[in-house]
Amino acid sequence: MSLWDDLDDDSQSNGTMRLQSFLGLYIFALLYELALSYDALRRKNTIQLVGLCICNLGLFTYGLLQIKEIKDTISSSTNRDLGDHLKDLYHIEIIIVPVILGVGTVCMSFFTWKLRAEFSWSIYKNVSADLQMKRRYFTYQVYIALLKFDFFFVFGTQLQILLVIFQAPEDMDFVVNASVIPITIGTLVLSAQFCKREKTKSLMFMMFLMLLIVGFLVLILLRMYSRKDSTDFSSFRKSLTLFAGVSLLLMVLTIANSVVCILNFNKGLKNHVHPPKKGKTVSLELESQETPTRFLLN
After folding, report:
1. Nearest-angstrom CA–CA distance, 167 and 233
2. Mind listing the pLDDT tens digit of every residue in the chain (298 residues)?
3. 3-state secondary structure the chain
4. Which residue from 121, 114, 122 is spatially nearest to 53, judged by alpha carbons?
5. Which residue range forms the structural domain that includes residue 211?
6. CA-to-CA distance for 59 and 70, rounded, in angstroms?
7. 174 in a domain, yes or no?
8. In this structure, are 168 and 272 located in the same domain?
9. Is 134 a member of any domain?
10. Are residue 114 and residue 154 in the same domain, yes or no?
11. What is the C-alpha to C-alpha distance for residues 137 and 148, in angstroms, rounded to an integer?
12. How far apart are CA 267 and CA 115, in angstroms?
């Protein structure tokens, strides 16, 4: 008999939902970190690797906090004897997850420190020895890394809210909260593309959408701690506060970084982050070769 069966047999869907939310987010976080790690190594983005180390540390801390939460959930969702049995049965599994994350964080930090010099040399070769250009490229890397972490925390926030709505379904709330996920994905993806191509007006519009997302996150926090709706979020208050708070902080930092990126437009960075296609380069070279020929004929 599984943990879910034991909880469901006791007809305590609230505890089951809380456990599924926690473990589901943990699985998604680890898979997303794996994808971001590959992406950071492929792009030689030291900033993203540092962000992953910090994120891993956060997951480690979150896992430690959730040990007590899971035990309390099991105790409240089952009778006392069954609760003690389940805690003894899954005691090792609950502890081993943050332990592995802690060891992984130490190893990741060590390898990031070792890779820093290699990646710095690659940036020096591919970008420029100019200090100002390196600073612009550093700002661009920070911006791209922030966008990737924004997605995870906003998605985690909305996932938990949707689970709350499933417990107390309201059609309009579900539609609004579900629509935030694709809007956020589109905003973050387009922001990266517009910044890469130095589209000032388009990026400013994306900043406006980010401000709307920030306002939505503030509304979530206010609603969660209001007297009227506090009971709806009681099962997810700690984790939802963490995710919404981190999402809010990251979105504000992303907007601020967007302003810095806009100030760096038209200063030569575009040629390094979005170089022209080879076909265009060849045509320009051909034109430059034809011009002196016509001059000689004249």
Report:
1. 10
2. 444 444 444 434 555 666 667 777 888 888 998 999 999 888 888 888 999 998 888 888 877 877 777 776 666 655 666 666 666 666 777 788 888 888 988 999 998 888 887 777 666 666 656 678 878 888 898 999 999 999 988 988 888 777 766 555 556 777 787 888 899 999 999 999 999 899 999 999 999 999 999 999 898 888 877 755 555 555 567 777 888 888 999 999 999 999 999 998 988 778 767 666 655 443 333 333 444 444 343 3
3. CCHHHHHHHCCCHHHHHHHHHHHHHHHHHHHHHHHHHHHHHHHCCHHHHHHHHHHHHHHHHHHHHHHHHHHHHHHHHCCHHHHHHHHHHCHHHHHHHHHHHHHHHHHHHHHHHHHHHHHHHHHHHHCCCCHHHHHHHHHHHHHHHHHHHHHHHHHHHHHHHHHHHHHCCCHHHHHHHHHHHHHHHHHHHHHHHHHHHCCHHHHHHHHHHHHHHHHHHHHHHHHHCCCCCCCCCCCCHHHHHHHHHHHHHHHHHHHHHHHHHHHCCCCCCHHHHCCCCHHHHHHHHHHHHHHHHHHHHC
4. 114
5. 147-277
6. 15
7. yes
8. yes
9. no
10. no
11. 17
12. 28
Q: 182, exposed or middle or buried, with CB in 10 Å at 0-12, 13-18, 19+?
A: exposed
pLDDT for position 250: 93
Distance CA 188, CA 147 (A): 6
pTM of the model: 0.77
Label residue 11 left, alpha or beta by phi (over 0 means left) and psi (-120 to 50 means alpha): left
Number of structural domains in the chain: 2
Return the residue matching tokens 């406006």. Answer: 208
Angle at 26 between CA 24 and CA 29, to 5 degrees: 110
Residues 94 and 178 in one domain: no
* The two structure tokens encoding residue 211: 């401000």
Query: What is the C-alpha separation between 273 and 139, in angstroms, rounded?
Result: 12
